[in-house]
Amino acid sequence: MSMHQESLEDTYGAFQDEQLSDDDNAAPEMQSEVEEGENEDPLQLAIDDLEGRVMSALNDFKLHLGVRSSSAPGSPTVHEELREMLQSVLEVAAHTGPSVARTYYQGIGQEGIELSCEEVYERLVSDLILPVVLEETQTDPIPAKRVACLEFFRHLFKECQKSGSWMDSTTTGPQMGPYGAGASGSHSSHHPNVNNPAIRAQQKRRFGKKLAREGEILRYWVQASISSLVEGVFTSEASEMAVASRGIIAASSSLRPCLKHIAQRIKDADDRGASKLFSPMMKMVEGVLKKLFLSSAEETAGSGDGIRGAALKFMEILTLVCSRKPHDPSQRRRSQANSEEFSLEDLPAGHPVITRESLESIAEYSFAIFRGLTLLGGQARIDENLLSDMLMSGGGGSPSAQVVSILKPAALAYLEIESSLPGSEEESAVQINVDRNNIEFDFMLSQKPYSLTLNAMSALALNRPMFFKESALCLARRAVQPPVFIEGGTLSKSGVLAISAHLKAACLTLLRNALSVSAKASDILHEASKACDMEMQADKALSMAKQANSLRTAGRAARNRANMMYTWEEGDKRKTETDDALAKLKEAKKARGLGHGIQLPKNMAEAIDLVFANLHNLPSKKPTSTGSKNRNVPVNLDFLVDAILTNGASLAQEEGRWYDRDGGAAWELKGDNDHKFELSTKFTELVSGSSGNQKPRETFFKDAAASSVDALGRIATQALNSRSAYHAQLGNEIAARLAWTLRGTKPPGATALSQALVEESVASLTDKQVTAKEKEELGVFIGRDYPLVSSCLALDFANNKADTKQDVNRTLSSHLLSEAYVQASIADQEGAQNKNYQTCMNAFVASVVRAGKLADDKPSDADRKQSAALASTQLQAMCQNFPEISPSSLRMVGGLCDIIEVTKKASDAARKNANQTVAASAALHSAKAAAEKRATTVLLTLRDIAFSRNSVDARRGAVEAAVMIAAGRLPSSQAIEDKALKLVMNVLYPKSEILGTLVTDASINELKESAKIAASKHDEIATANNANAEKNKEKGILGDNPLSDPEREFMDVAKKPVTILMALCVRKPDLIKTMFEVSCTPKADALQKTVRANMAKMAKAAAAKHGAAAIANKVAAMTGPAELALLLAFLDNLTDQKTMNQEFIDACHEIQAGKAGEDGKKDPRFLIPVVAAMKRQELVEKLPDFVAAEDKIFLAALERMGDRVARQALLYRDEPDEENPSLKGMTLCEQLVFLHNLDFAAAGLPQKRYLDAIKHCLDNDEIYSDRVVMSALDHMSGVFLEGDKGLPLAYMRTIILVCSKHESLHSFITSTLLPRLVEGKIYTDRRQWEGWMRCAKMLSPDSQQAIQKLPKEQYELYCARYTK
């Protein structure tokens, strides 16, 4: 007996002694109390108490309504409330239960503790908590409670592994939980003698019980996950999706623990225990994969991203645990450090079913699916036949075979596509062209699932080197050919940009890893990064990978050196930064050398340092001068100081530049007057060339031009920096006059920035802004004729020194333009032509637009931003104040509205996952706001010009520019296009009749431009449409929808000008004729389709404003035969509940009569829009016309007839009053009845056409279903039985066709129709009787009952012909 047990017995004995009584009468009573005390087991009482607490908590959980108990701010959510209710159950199950078992155990020593623990676990956990919580997970109708139960199993498994709990993994020996306090106990440091056989047996027994408890909890956890993946549990689709998503997350959490448990079972030679968990685990995997691959698009439409994302993450974990670890020892050590990891190496061999080969095949197919999702952007269509065959054959094998049967068809769908791509060793391995338009998909990935897929590919590549090269190849291919934005697709514009950035980052991450070199994938990744304009980053990443790869196989010395370098860089970071700063300071001092704009320091010591630091920069010889002789100036310290003080100007002085040396020597006093000077005679003779020497004369004029340019530069700079408005204006006037005077002179250095800006501006002009001739004139103007003028145009804002409050009319650019306008006016008066003003204005506007573009390209540059603001301000003022402005200048002004790039950058920065600092994001948003302000200023400027100018050309140019922006011809953001559209339609058009005419003309011109583009792309669009014809037919893409990518791109662009003109057509219906004529330009089919696709809004608005009947007659009168398709589309879009009245029906009849052919034949297509509102009697009369038309017209008319009576499709309605028919439309049943009863001979129709019309209806079984056909046949047979009418000619033929097409109607025909026809004496009609016998023969022996009802003569005839 142990000392612990002895102390307990001594205490109990002392307790009994204290309770003894000396009263003899009390002996029986005390004996009964002792017996009762012995019967009350404290362990049982404690277990009963815990059971009561658990049952109370579980009952409260069951009674919870699944909604928040309080909606006050800060109150817990429903999930927090449910988790709190189950928290007490979790504490009892994981911690309180083991503690009670250790405290109230009975028996001897450790064996008593083991028995108590076993009893507590069975009663509380095994028999109560696990089954009840699983039942809640499987049956509770509230999704939130199911989710809470799923989370309970995960927390229970985690808590049970903590110290002192049922599956304690913190220590071993007697203190291992639940038999001790675990690692947290006071005796946790005591290590038992493992060589003792009794202790070894005890540990083995306890380990077996621990493994059994672990397996039981895992099985319940897996069953709970499976129950959450079953379809049809909830009536609400959102609830089912939410529970399924959490079930997949629970399955992901349980996958690794299950496999580790299975591996331990196999290691202990317990194959049955391993299979007991492996089968439900594979069923769980199968359920998750079915959610991903076998769920329909409708089922996952609402919460598809959540389900799909969770399933893809699960499949990533499945691939990792079913694949092999790397063989690299360093990576093996790192992976062993993580106890949560699992791979195939951890699975022992020996189990007959659970083998490494079966699991490895799962990993291979899963990885192939990931490659397909990455490269294609979705799951390629799975062959249903192959899938069904594999599912049927996969169930009879091992549990993993069913999982493979789901994964394999999905993988083969991609591998079939991959087989046609070049291999990884070929040169074109990365540069591939996958035509995704010709690939059918089961589903496409949106942004979140796509990001998870890319993360999975990166994780598989880095953690499983066997997948590295294929992952790198797949990511590189997709990075080179990233996804594109498609209207109506799963990826938004921001999603496309995010996925593209993710792909580039993934390629760089893989390239930076040493595996890229060892796996021979570095060339592929480097090529992809280079194609994505990341060559510099790729070079750095590749060098890091090569260095890391070399260190893996390098010796100890090399690794130590690398470690020392790393330590030095980290430890001496401050010293390194100090040394670098000192070196930079020294280099900066040297850089301030001669010819680089040096300034002599104020401190003499620093000045001397600067002089001596630049001694070696002096040339060995003095620069040669251009004059006749050189000055003999010694190179000494004074010479050097002069060079420094003059910024190197003293070294560049030329002997021939007299104005720099002694220009005053050219002047002399005039006579005795001390105040008047004149040129010296010697100088005038030298300049005039009278001395016979022409070289001084040439030098003089050359130097005179140079001196004028220098003077201009100084004047313009001083005027720009002057604080006096008067001096600034005077300087600008002189500079402007000099600039126009000095033609063909190169600009000074002071205007270099301005000149560069103007040259870039002209080079960046597009064909939409200027014509080729205008661009050529601009190039000649700034490069040859007036480079000095062009360099001064942007001087005010190129140097960021202009005052924003300065009067714009006093700027240098305004003076230059004024001077040009004066010259042009003088030329006009003289009958000459001078384009300098127009060209100068174009150059100025181009420089302003370029300044705005430069500010957008670099949002963080404050100078560019200020320059753009100054330029925009000057442009607005000049456009308002200058007397003339050309249309080309106004078109160029619209270039300021091109803010698409900066808008995209700002949108990217607004995303949460954007890799932008706060300052960069703020700069982008500020740049976007400034760009939108400039664009809005442009629109206001165009408005002011259109309102205030007297010149028709200027007003027309402003209106055309505004319309071009609204129509998208001049690129701009969506917000600016909307503003431009409002400006055109709500401001300019209603302002005056003249402006309205200009807006109309400009809109028509934009539509004509679209027609030209459509005609030029006709062949390309037709080829693409023909290539996609079969695919579009299968998908049901018909009508006015785009049939190919080229057509979709054109229709998106052409939609804007079409919309503008349609808005004008509503206000001025006469424009519809022009729109129809332009849209029907030869080969402009895409434009015509665009007009038809956007016709609905215009038609409804026109009908609301002018009346449906009136506008229909008006448009019909304006259109000719070439515009017939557009007229029909217009009439079709006029129909709705409000306009479908008798007046509109009469209008359609009038239009049909007016559009009749020369032979008087009327086109039935004009009545199709109104057949749903026409009386049935009229439709019966018009039915032969529809039958005689083409099949497409005939079926369209029938479909439209039943639009308003779709709910009565199975009925044949009787007229309430035969004399006054009132029924409208025609049900599907009535259509078949009237078609059969059609008198084709009287209508002049061939019998073949009559029969074909009926057959077309029967072939369209999606509309004319078996129930519709049954109701029609039943009605006609009933009428025949009543004797009112005979059977229609095609009746029995229809029944025979129905027998072949609808097997579901065989019973109806044999049991109802055939006997009814016998009863009506069908055998009296030879043709119908022949059809009856054939039908009876086809349905034999089911038709035997009807045959028996035949009269004797007919029965014998039937038997003689069809019975052997």
UniProtKB/TrEMBL annotation:
Composition skew (Acidic residues), residue ranges: 19-41
Keywords from the named record: mRNA processing, Nucleus
Domain Symplekin C-terminal intervals: 1163-1360
Residues of the Symplekin/Pta1 N-terminal domain: 242-368
Keyword presence, Membrane: no
Any GO CC annotation of this UniProt entry: mRNA cleavage and polyadenylation specificity factor complex
Positions of the UniProt region annotated as Disordered: 1-42, 179-202
Organism (species): Seminavis robusta
Lineage of the species this protein comes from: Eukaryota, Sar, Stramenopiles, Ochrophyta, Bacillariophyta
Protein name: Symplekin
Primary location class: nucleus
Pfam families with a match to the protein in the record: SYMPK_PTA1_N, Symplekin_C
Compartmental location: Nucleus
